[in-house]
Design goal:
Layout lengths: L1 E4 L6 H9 L11 E5 L15 H13 L11 E7 L9 H15 L12 E5 L4 E7 L13 H16 L17 H9 L6 H13 L5 H10 L3 E6 L5 E7 L13 E2 H4 L5 H12 L6 H8 L4 H21 L2 H20 L3 H17 L12 H13 L6 H27 L3 H34 L3 H14 L4 H5 L4 H13 L4 H11 L8 H12 L31 H14 L1
Antiparallel strand pairs: 1-3, 2-4, 3-5, 4-5, 6-7, 7-8
Helix pairs in contact: 1-2, 3-4, 6-7, 10-11, 11-12, 11-14, 11-15, 12-13, 12-14, 13-16, 15-16, 15-21, 16-19, 17-20, 19-21, 20-21
């Protein structure tokens, strides 16, 4: 149940005409009263002798009993209450009780408090009602509407339980402002899937991603085609900004501008500046070493650095100071935006959905201390400047590696929010994780399939030796890993690590000790990427020489691919188990 207090108005009759009218798109059906301050109030929807002017006159009557100077300039209070699409249809009596509970909670008319304001609840659809009230009480005083929005939200949560409706998570005031009904109708008329507010919020959010200065931020906004207005102090110092879509205009054919703070709480200019001003006060992140290891400026190297930064950030979110963890969570949103912007076509949709969902998880009342999150912000910047990935070869494999690490970071974020009672943020992070899970399955199919092939081509003695090593290094997980199809990709990775001069047993132990694996679909897949990341191994198996003579092309199988010949696969699995 979603209660939404609309902007206050000046004309009671104008709102009544809308509520009892056909709607802007003929969507209103059978408008009628379900409750009011007076059981005998006229209902122009069901009573042929009643008129809208009569109802308006009765609603506004307390206004006429006070001096003009004592009347509020905007005296019309308007609340809409809407159920979810999957909720059952409430009766008029139930909606009437909802209306009475809402006006009492808001402070409009609470019978226990004596004289209240006059109000009426109109239903013109199955799933919602509108409540209109005039803001002068019967005794001439004004109602106490402080925190009315929070109070009606709390009442909605109680009604959901009592009426058996979908239970929504309690908000904390840090969510981005929802589009108004007028904005949604305007977008529909113009044939746009999203409102101007939503398009602008996403564009501004992406412009912030990895930006390092005001100039870079505004250059990105201009490059995205937005109209920009800057607000400056008399001294010339920049104080704020507004943005608009070129084709979003009002009735006077003027662009409709939105201040950054009206798009999302963290998109005001002062809040944006906190990101790069804090970085300037901290020591530079050690990216020079990473550039030497993986090469600067390429899509693959940017994804390597992203995986490394995400790997380190999980520990901070799980065990660090709350304010520092909040900064890392916010910066994770930038990384997701950058990865979605530069992803290959086959993973782009899921990554964009993950970034959109995670936007809600990136803010809470825990104020972020910026600067310590520089590694993640730099990773986002590297992704943007590294350019789009083709989704094949090394950048395709490192994309899977980065998504895998980000999945665990976002899962840790969901746990962090849940522990602090941030229900909406926890749910948003969990939804983002599911999109990442799908994107990972798509991105990892080809590189893991190639590693699987290489693992199946290992000689029997070598495979037996890797099996013994696994059982010694990870006795509690070994049997689970050996039963997974991804074991062959892990065996190939262990072989590559040995060839590069590493101790694979130590790598395996470190990989398991540092991160949880309970949320992994395949433990072996996770260990493949952790070992290849830690040991600096090429993520794309096609760049490595074969470790054994290749015979006929074997059937591949990863977490997302199915073998074309099940009988042959079972035979191969039996042979492999005997070798173990």
């Amino acid at each position: 149940m979603i209660p939404r207090i609309q902007k206050r108005g000046q004309r009671t009759i104008g709102l009544l005409y809308y509520l009892y009218g056909p709607g802007k798109f003929e969507e209103h059906t059978d408008p009628h009263l379900v409750a009011s301050w007076d059981n005998n109030a006229p209902d122009p929807g069901r009573d042929p002798s009643a008129t809208l002017k009569q109802l308006r006159q009765l609603l506004d009557q307390p206004m006429e009993n006070v001096e003009q100077a004592d009347r509020p300039k905007k005296h019309v209070w308007h609340l809409s209450v809407r159920n979810a699409g999957e909720d059952r249809i409430l009766s008029d009596e139930e909606w009437g009780e909802v209306a009475r509970r809402m006006v009492a909670a808001a402070g409009i008319d609470d019978p226990e408090q004596g004289a209240g304001c006059r109000w009426a609840a109109v239903r013109h659809a199955d799933d919602h009602i509108h409540i209109v009230a005039t803001l002068v009480r019967e005794d001439g005083f004004h109602p106490d509407l402080d925190h009315d929005a929070a109070r009606v939200q709390g009442q909605a949560r109680a009604l959901e339980v009592e009426l058996g409706l979908r239970r929504l998570n309690k908000g904390d005031g840090t969510a981005a402002k929802r589009p108004t009904s007028a904005e949604r109708h305007k977008a529909k008329r113009q044939g746009r899937e999203r409102t101007a507010r939503e398009e602008l919020r996403e564009t501004v959010r992406r412009a912030v991603t990895g930006a390092a200065s005001d100039e870079e931020f505004f250059d990105r906004l201009a490059a995205a085609g937005l109209l920009i207005r800057k607000r400056a102090a008399p001294s010339g110092d920049l104080l704020g900004y507004k943005v608009a879509l070129p084709n979003d205009r009002n009735k006077d054919d003027e662009p409709v501008f939105y201040p950054g703070a009206r798009l999302a709480p963290d998109l005001s200019l002062p809040r944006i500046r906190e990101r790069w001003s804090a970085e300037a006060r901290n020591d530079p992140a050690p990216w020079q070493e990473d550039a030497a290891r993986w090469g600067p400026g390429t899509a693959a190297s940017a994804r390597r650095r992203t995986a490394s930064a995400a790997w380190q950030a999980v520990l901070i979110v799980e065990h660090g100071d709350d304010a520092v963890a909040a900064a890392h969570i916010s910066a994770t949103g930038e990384v997701l935006d950058a990865l979605a912007k530069t992803s290959a076509a086959h993973t782009r949709r899921e990554l964009r959905d993950a970034a959109t969902d995670f936007e809600r998880a990136s803010r809470s009342h825990v104020r972020a201390v910026r600067g310590h999150d520089r590694a993640l912000r730099q990773a986002a910047r590297e992704l943007v400047h590294g350019g789009p990935a083709l989704g094949r070869g090394e950048d395709g494999a490192t994309t899977a590696m980065a998504i895998d690490m980000l999945f665990f970071l976002i899962t840790a974020t969901a746990h962090w929010h849940a522990q602090k009672g941030h229900a909406q943020q926890a749910q948003a992070a969990a939804q983002a994780a599911e999109h990442l899970r799908t994107a990972y399955q798509t991105a990892s199919a080809q590189p893991l399939g190639m590693l699987y092939q290489r693992g199946r081509r290992l000689s029997r003695p070598l495979l037996q030796r890797q099996t013994v090593l696994l059982r010694e290094a990870l006795p509690e997980l070994a049997e689970q890993i050996l039963a997974e199809p991804g074991w062959y990709a892990l065996a190939a990775t262990i072989t590559d690590a040995e060839a590069a001069g590493h101790d694979p047993a130590a790598l395996l132990s470190a990989a398991v000790e540092r991160r949880e694996l309970d949320t992994a679909d395949s433990v072996s897949d996770v260990l493949v990427w952790r070992l290849r990341q830690t040991a600096d191994l090429p993520a794309d198996a096609s760049s490595l020489p074969e470790n054994s003579t290749a015979g006929s092309r074997p059937t591949t199988r990863s977490t997302t691919t199915k073998p074309s010949t099940p009988g042959r696969r079972r035979s191969e699995e039996e042979t492999s188990r005997k070798a173990r």
